[in-house]
Amino acid sequence: MRGTPEQPPLTDPLRIGDVEIPNRVLLAPLAGIGNWFVRLQAKRHGAGLAVSEMVSSFGLHHRNERTLRELMRIHPDEHPVSIQLFGHDPKVMRSGAAIAAEAGADLIDINMGCPVRKVRKTGAGAELLRDPELALALARGASEGSGRPVTVKLRSGIEAGERSGFDLAVRLAEEGGVAAIAFHPRAATVGHKGSPDYELTRELTERVEVPVIVSGGLKSAEAARVAYEESGADAVMIARGALGNPWVFEQLTGRRSEPPDRAEVAAELLWVIDRAEEHLGTERAGRYLRKFYPWYVEPLGVEPELADELQRNADLPQARRLIASLAAPAASL
């Protein structure tokens, strides 16, 4: 138990195991989104660490070609980088973690908080809160296989009002050898509804010796600052608050105080399109990017017709032309 030391600023470095993170503002794992260029984008804008979208330990263990080619791709400028794995078999987790480390992961994170039914029904994600011994075995397996610091991301419990996630977090820190805990203080069954219990996060921070990273409800820089202060955590982890808004990392690290202008948003989205095409090829990137466009263009108040055209019909050349037009003053659109 470490008590309540004075909380450092978010711009101070953070050490997780033997890995030094340059600041305390992290990108959360974003399922189906957090590939190498999304992580690189966060790093470009000031994130100290970016965590990958969750990757199947079984996919790695069985050396699935697409998993290895796409999900294990790490850009040299990402480091330090964390790869998040999910699964329910300690031996497979050990193997998968070894492969992730070989690919260049500086840290391994294990997902013990995913509330999605198809993940939980396999015994992975938040379902691990029901089986602490298995959860501990997975953490130990990942550590042994990778030789890297292992972190765990988990919810406060499965059902509202229970603390199985809190109790497991304590055991992971004290018995499982994990180097940090990312804690989302809401139950798995409530998803993103309701208010996160930052007081419970503070209780965890005071209970364990390893860094505690607060997650959940951080939709803006101001919300992240409030959560950091109220929780007493060692770092913040931004998830949905970073979608279409990588500038949140600049705001939290003191590099920016004002929101981006239209030209900045257009330039950033064009950068995303270029990287997606590089990663997936023209045809797949065109489909993949449709979920990205609203995150960037809707806050600008563009005409519904333009937003609809981007999301439904635009191929990449057309998307580039439409987005370039966003750099113009609003009155001329």
Number of helices: 15
Radius of gyration: 20 Å
Total number of strands: 11
Silhouette: globular
Neighbour order of strands in the largest sheet: 3-4-6-7-8-9-10-11
Topology of this protein?
Elements (H helix, E strand, L loop, with lengths): L13 E3 L2 E3 L3 E3 L8 H9 L4 E3 L3 E2 H5 L3 H7 L9 E6 L3 H14 L3 E6 L4 H4 L11 H15 L3 E8 L6 H11 L5 E8 L10 H10 L4 E4 L5 H11 L3 E4 L8 H6 L9 H19 L1 H7 L4 H5 L6 H9 L3 H9 L9
Parallel strand pairs: 3-4, 3-11, 4-6, 5-6, 6-7, 7-8, 8-9, 9-10, 10-11
Antiparallel strand pairs: 1-2
Helix pairs in contact: 4-6, 11-12, 11-15
Protein architecture, described:
With 333 residues, the protein is of the alpha/beta class. Helix content is 42%, strand content 15%. Strands 3-4-6-7-8-9-10-11 form an eight-stranded parallel barrel, surrounded by six helices. The chain has a two-stranded antiparallel ribbon with strand order 1-2. Helix 7 (164-174) links the parallel strand 8 (150-157) and strand 9. Helix 4 runs parallel beside helix 6.
